[in-house]
Design a protein that fits this description.
By secondary structure, this protein is α/β, with parallel strands linked by helices. Helices cover about 40% and strands about 15% of the residues. A 5-stranded parallel beta sheet has the order 11-14-17-10-18. Strands 1-2-4-3 form a 4-stranded mixed beta sheet. Strand 15 and strand 16 form a beta hairpin. The longest helix is centred in the C-terminal third of the chain and has 18 residues.
């Protein structure tokens, strides 16, 4: 702590301060990216009021009291002069308490309590507690990426965010525990050491999954459908009675998906960073999100007053599992239709538009009726006339059209459940999936943004899904019999192309078409799908 003489000297000095403008640098989040913000601080001896301008949010306006307490608690003076804090560009709204740190450093520098030549070299962000302790913030990863793009020498963040930010190579990341450490750093940059992170080594050490498909007894047809879905990136609906294994199978689905690439891992990690759900480590496993059926539409697709990513964005590059699909509010499900097609969600506000990535695979499950035992081989259904149809009609036709594979899950027999035979492991299934994905990777190498069969648009589908006369006739008959839509026709072709890739067949054969039709041929009169 400072002595009484030092405090008195600083007080006398502050009364004779001349007008001075200082700039520090922060960052503002826009969807899953960031933009650099200039914080200009002008302290003038003519007046006593502090003003924060540049479209600050309420939490930014409240920063004065937090900053004043933090500055006093470390022995410095909060300048009680005419002070203007301008946050540029002024057309971008600044939200959150993360601007506490750059504003505090700007105030101290403008009042000549910090004399440093390094203010222009670093971006800094952090929330201040009343005693000056730095609290963690959201979005450290995209902020660091932007700081590197803008040519800053480094970024200063709360120590809790340093590991996350250090994933960005080519920029120094300094983690600080307290405001006093940041002040000392500007006076002497050797007081803090940069945080290092070997991202390639972290990514290479992907841990194995705790679940495996060899734990699932029977269900060979269902597992075949899941393998096809994983190989082509297709959406799935599992329909079956309670206890048939729908959730068990869905939870094991990520174990047969190809490992994440480093760009995918960074992109997914950035979303979790913006959402404040990152524990500091790179996300190396494909996400598996399973929201409850009481979820709101904003929580599912994203949005709010200050738009945040929803569950479909948190499932980016992974799996979104909607258990008991008919129990979700219909309005909630309907807002998901466009993101399924576009693989992103756009949140529009009066002054700006935010795009959140949403390239997820959808797995939905449903009981066949309210009681759950319609078409059960051993138990009778207690639902009255028309209840099955009304239950399934909770899911709209347009949404069902966007689900490629409709798979019926039947109960496992006692013989299969207690048998000693072992099922195929996830590793073996994943090897076939990866081989099929590699074929698709070569197929779409000249088509930006398309990586699997499910992402093909109509013109590309025509080029890659050639049908001979027998295949065309078979598909035509299925369209007429099942009353399928044009979108369903395209979905069957895409699934057929995936089945051919798994079989390493250059052309789609009639048995590939037949299997694809099988996975969309649940009885419409009974299930209404």
């Amino acid at each position: 702590m400072l002595s009484a003489d030092e405090i008195f000297f600083r007080y006398i000095h502050s009364q004779t301060i001349s007008s001075m403008i200082v700039k520090t640098y922060g960052s503002a989040l826009q969807s899953v990216s960031a933009i650099s913000i200039v914080i200009e601080v002008n302290v003038s001896p003519k007046g006593t009021r502090l003003s924060i301008v540049g479209l600050p949010g309420s939490s930014v306006k409240e920063s004065e009291d937090r900053i004043e307490s933090a500055i006093h608690n470390i022995g410095y003076f909060f300048p009680r002069f005419r002070t203007i804090v301008n946050m540029a560009p002024a057309n971008i709204r600044k939200e959150g308490a993360a601007y506490d740190l750059p504003i505090a450093i700007g105030l101290l520098a403008a009042s000549e309590q910090i004399i440093s030549d390094y203010l222009n070299h670093y971006t800094l962000m952090g929330e201040l507690s009343l005693d000056g302790t730095l609290l963690p913030i959201k979005g450290a990863l995209p902020m660091t990426i932007q700081a590197k793009k803008d040519g800053f020498k480094g970024i200063i963040l709360p120590i809790q965010n340093a590991k996350e930010a250090a994933m960005v190579e080519g920029i120094n990341v300094y983690g600080a525990f307290h405001l006093k450490e940041v002040i000392d750093f500007y006076n002497n940059p050797t007081t803090l050491s940069p945080t290092n992170s070997d991202i390639s080594n972290i990514f290479s050490q992907q841990t194995a999954y705790d679940l495996d498909f060899n734990e699932v007894k029977g269900q060979y047809s269902v597992k075949r459908g899941l393998e096809i879905a994983a190989a082509g990136g297709h959406n799935i609906l599992l329909i079956g009675p309670p206890g048939a294994g729908k959730t068990m199978l869905a939870k094991r689905f990520p174990t047969i998906l190809p490992p994440m690439t480093l760009p995918e891992a960074l992109e997914t990690t950035k979303i979790y960073s913006v959402a404040g759900k990152l524990d500091g480590d790179l996300i190396t496993k494909r996400p598996f999100r399973s929201p409850h059926h009481t979820i709101s539409d904003i929580a599912l697709v994203g949005g709010g007053i200050h738009p945040q990513p929803g569950e479909i964005s948190l499932a980016h590059n992974g799996v979104l599992f909607l258990d008991e699909l008919p129990e979700f509010q219909r309005a909630v499900l309907e807002v998901m239709r466009q993101p399924i097609e576009e693989r992103k969600v756009t949140i529009s506000r009066a002054n700006y538009t935010a795009d959140f990535p949403a390239a997820f695979m959808l797995i939905a499950s449903s009981n066949p009726c309210p009681c759950g035992y319609f078409n059960h081989p051993e138990r009778s259904c207690s639902c009255g006339p028309g209840m099955v149809q009304r239950y399934m009609r909770k899911i709209s036709g347009p949404l069902m059209d966007r689900i490629d594979l409709h798979i019926e899950v039947t109960p496992v027999s006692h013989h299969e459940l207690t048998g000693l035979s072992t099922s195929e492991s996830s590793n073996k299934i994943r090897e076939r999936v990866i081989a099929a994905r590699n074929i698709q990777k070569q197929r779409f190498i000249r088509h930006k943004g398309i990586y699997n069969n499910a992402q093909m648009h109509s013109s590309l589908l025509k080029k890659t899904a050639h049908l001979d006369t027998g295949c065309a006739d078979l598909l035509k008959k299925a369209m007429q019999t099942l009353h399928l839509s044009a979108r369903a026709y395209d979905r069957i072709l895409k699934v057929s192309r995936t089945i051919a890739d798994l079989a390493k067949s250059e052309n789609i054969q009639s048995d590939h078409i037949a299997e694809a039709i099988h996975f969309r041929s649940l009885d419409r009169e009974n299930y209404w799908i």
